[in-house]
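seq:
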Amino acid sequence: MFETLLPPKQDAIIALMQAFAADTRTDKIDLGVGVYRDEDGCTPVMRAVKSAEARIVAEQDSKSYLSLAGDAAFLTAMERLLLGGAVPSSRVAAVGTPGGTSAVRQICELVRTTRPDAVVWVSAQTWPNHLPLIAAAGLASRPYRYLDAGGGGLDHIGMFADLEQVNAGDIVLIHGCCHNPTGVDLGLQDWAELAALLSRRGAVPFVDMAYQGFGEGLEDDAAGLRHLAARLPEVLVAASCSKNFGLYRERVGIAMTIVPEPQRTTLAAALASLNRQAFAFPPDHGGRVVSTILGDDALRHDWQGELDAMRNRVQENRRALATALRNATGSDRFAALGVQNGMFSMLPLTPDQVASLRKDHGVYVLDDGRANMAGLSARNIERCAHAIAQVAR
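struct:
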């Protein structure tokens, strides 16, 4: 039966993880894997998460199935966190999913069932799994320009010129904040121009919100999504709690649609049906942790304080690396690293330079130069900057 089956192409991130694990050097630096790390290189369990889990263990009296949509308290809490009342709840239909990855896939499946000829427009630099998920759902995709490689900011002219080609019913995938892999985010004026363009062209935004709270803060990071939701008839959203709650292995996500009120019931049923076909009932534990935290003032305050500290640490790493690189190179070639947002940036290096960075210096980043700023620490920033400067010569 499987004689002709070929092995799938290995995922670049998984391959990098394996290469790092096999490296015996004690001073190696992992800037590849997309998880938050503290100063000691650990991915901690947040204090509020531990408290919420203890409460759940003590109080929960059943492990029976929930609905196909998942826990209603989780869905309501996430709606408030993401949308902040920008639209009435009567326009929102949502389901829980196993992580943000499944949320992206479920939204793509929803698009395929309703408009299979839609083109999904994706920023030219994006999360490596976006395009495979879109293709697996049977949808076509096209890139739009995003990163101004020379200046390290947004290629505003190129982006909007490309998006002027979208057709009515097409989908435009946008990173809600902390763009992965570039660290370059849209400003409020960019979001306003995007809303106007999408309205004029009749295209539908699809906002992937994987890092809320890691850019400028919980409210500021959601401002673009809320702007679109308040001004457009239809908005698609996929969100993850992996980063901002540190629930990576619990797989906590949400797929959400914002539609005219008369369509809400139909969309809720459609999303629940897609869940049934894919995995039936979404996992509950991680979602219940989230709803417990967001529903308790003391836990939420503690969680938000720890999240703010994590965000500030990443921003400090950025600034420290940019300064160290300026000192090591005598130029501002890497200055954009200090002002970009979130955990990721793309080092302006060639594939050969990235290979040298790994082989000669034990500094691991993805082939396209994506580096996780949370992998830095006070102990390795200077060495990392020296290594980058050496290969960039």
